[in-house]
Design a protein that fits this description.
By secondary structure, the protein is an alpha/beta fold. The chain contains 16 helices and 15 strands. The strands form 3 sheets. A 7-stranded mixed beta sheet has the order 12-11-10-9-13-14-15, with helices on both faces. Helix 2 runs antiparallel to helix 3 and helix 7 packs antiparallel against helix 8. The longest helix has 15 residues. The chain is elongated, with a radius of gyration of 27 Å.
């Protein structure tokens, strides 16, 4: 049976070269227009080849591609009847004759997601012009969200995703919009693993600074951080130097730090929505398990990894336990989480903001720089530069309406 299925040719498309009519209806949207059009067409025994309808600010455009009615004089009669019905419905009609269906989409298919706050006509012109120059054709445009950012998705064919991403990167930066290019196909709908950095990504704070405030060594910690950013210390050296300043601090301070942590707007919405879709979600941090373990419980995460502050006799010793979770360590944990989740690396998404996230972003199937340093934005697959973590959902093709509808059913507020 399997061999028969493999060798049986696909049935021919009866409308491929047959005469067809494109019936276009436009005007003020109201209930019953779509039903009314097809009831009118049904009298002529036509088959539906394609339908598309768009409503923008209460104005609708309905396009129906149908086979030519069989019988002498029926095309003219259909045209007259549709125009009469449209006039009676206070709509306008246009009917164009031709042959066959839409032309086949070109090879190299992508979803190009554009985020703007605001999304200007100038930036849209630049993005769409570059898609054309890269050899791409825009087959469909769909709005994913209107707030807190405007998110629009372009279905593009005819250009390789990698080349398209490269072509759009410069325009993204110069026109103040975020652009993500993802290959089209079933993989986009497959179960995924999403792994995020913590400090300045899932939360708005730097955890070491919160601990330092309780130890009275904020200035010293800031000096060490600055030295690391100048390249004078690597991450592990700077971590050990900063943690050493916490020696003798009562470990119960961790409770106060956990209470002070501020989630990034949209963090709860992002995790909640991903979990509804069956995704697995984790965090990996150069911070401390004293905070990430609590985040794992609060957000219902599947995975969490971070450094652990050593405690002896109820006091921090100024040391960390075990190997440091640094830049390479984050990538290792991403691979480990993926293996445990049974998800190939190509189906992972990593989100981060700092240089120590680069290995993780590069290892993931999709690396997202979230309000990141320039070097990180340049290296990542895409960047998000608005302060709402749930905008990552738009990169996965999830609309704002879908998020809010699901939240309404569960009685929870959106954009937490």
């Amino acid at each position: 049976m399997e061999d028969a299925l493999r060798t049986t040719p696909a049935p021919a498309d009866p409308a491929r070269d047959a005469p067809t009519l494109l019936v276009k209806i436009f005007g003020k949207d109201r209930p019953g227009i779509t039903a009314g059009l097809f009831e009118t067409l049904a009298a002529y025994g036509v088959d539906v080849v394609d339908i598309e309808q768009v409503v923008t600010r209460g104005r609708m455009v309905l396009c129906a591609l149908v086979t030519m009615p069989e019988g002498r004089g029926l095309e003219g009669e259909l045209r007259a009847t549709v125009h009469t019905w449209a006039e009676a419905s206070r709509m306008e009609a246009e009917i164009i004759s031709g042959r066959g269906d839409n032309r086949p989409r070109g090879e190299g298919r992508s979803h190009v997601t554009v985020l703007g706050s605001p999304l200007t006509a100038e930036s849209t012109a630049a993005i769409t012009a570059l898609i054309t120059r890269a050899g791409g054709n825009i087959d469909r445009i769909f709005r994913l969200a209107k707030y807190p950012v405007t998110a629009v998705e372009f279905a593009v064919s005819g250009a390789e995703p990698a080349e398209l991403r490269s072509a759009l990167a410069v325009a993204s930066s110069s026109h103040g919009v975020d652009v993500a290019v993802m290959p089209a196909g079933l993989q986009r709908r497959a179960q995924r693993l999403v792994v995020m950095d913590v400090d300045s990504t899932v939360i708005q704070d730097e955890v070491i600074e919160l601990f330092a405030a309780h130890a009275g060594c904020e200035e010293q910690v800031a000096e060490i951080t600055a030295a690391a950013m100048r390249g004078e210390l690597d991450f592990a050296q700077s971590l050990h130097a900063r943690v050493a300043l916490l020696a003798g601090l009562d470990a119960s301070v961790a409770d106060k730090v956990r209470a002070e942590v501020r989630l990034t707007p949209g963090a709860r919405t992002l995790v909640r929505t991903l979990k509804r879709l069956g995704y697995q979600v984790g965090v990996v941090s150069g911070g401390f398990t004293q905070v990430t373990d609590d985040l794992k419980e609060r957000l219902g995460l599947d995975f969490a990894a971070a450094n652990t502050l050593e405690v002896v006799d109820g006091k921090f010793t100024g040391k960390v336990v075990g190997p440091v979770v640094d830049r390479a360590g984050k990538a290792r944990h991403l691979r480990s989480f993926a293996e445990q989740a049974g998800v190939p690396l190509s189906q992972t998404v990593a989100v981060g903001d700092g240089a120590n996230d680069l290995d993780m972003l590069n290892a993931a199937g999709l690396g997202v720089a979230f309000n990141a340093k320039p070097v990180v934005r340049q290296a990542a697959d895409t960047a998000v530069n608005v302060p709402f973590l749930d905008t990552v959902l738009y990169l996965l093709g999830i609309t704002r309406e879908e998020i809010e509808a699901a939240d309404a059913l569960d009685g929870v507020p959106t954009n937490e």
